[in-house]
Amino acid sequence: MMFERAEWFNDAACATTDPDIFFPEIGDSVSGPNARTICHHCDTRTSCLEYAINNRITDGIWGGVTARTRRRIIEQRNKETVWD
Ligand code: SF4
């Protein structure tokens, strides 16, 4: 799946990193933690996470957050919207 390159990506800590580590294979116990460490120090972390959530990106680590956790965030936000 291709996404339009967002402006915040110009300041991304991962811009010069192997993108494969942000899309770890099942059972890969190295890439995911390495990616999250890079994200932790990234100035665009919040924009990156919101981009992935808003675009319902279902794979990879964005903003230091896995797809599973992003699904939980979306579910939580949907619940909050219903009750607001
Ligand atoms: S938060 Fe992580 S995935 Fe997002 S731009 Fe920064 S380094 Fe890349």
Q: What does this protein structure show overall?
A:
The model has no long low-confidence stretch (mean pLDDT 91). This protein has one domain (20-83). It has helices at 31-40, 45-54, 67-83. The longest helix has 17 residues, at 67-83. The N and C termini lie far apart (34 Å). It is mainly alpha-helical. The structure holds iron/sulfur cluster. Iron/sulfur cluster (SF4) binds at residues 12-14, 22, 38-39, 42, 44-45, 48, 62-64. Iron/sulfur cluster binds next to α1 and α2.
How are the SSEs placed, and which strands pair?
Layout: H1 31-40, H2 45-54, H3 67-83
The structure holds iron/sulfur cluster.
Describe the structure concisely for a colleague.
With 84 residues, the protein is mainly alpha-helical. Helices cover 44% and strands 0% of the residues.
One letter per element, helices H and strands E, the order comes to HHH
Gross geometry: globular
Largest sheet properties: none
Helix fraction by DSSP (H/I, runs of at least 4)? 40-55%
| Intertermini distance | 34 Å
* Count of spatially separate domains: 1
Beta-strand proportion: under 5%
Radius of gyration, CA atoms, in whole angstroms: 13 Å
Tally of DSSP β-strands? 0
Q: Report the bound ligands by name, code or SMILES.
A: iron/sulfur cluster
Q: What is the mean pLDDT?
A: 91
Number of helices: 3
Structural class: mainly alpha
Instruction: List low-pLDDT spans.
Output: none
Provide the descriptors you would attach to this structure in a database record:
binds iron/sulfur cluster; 84 residues; mainly alpha; 44% helix
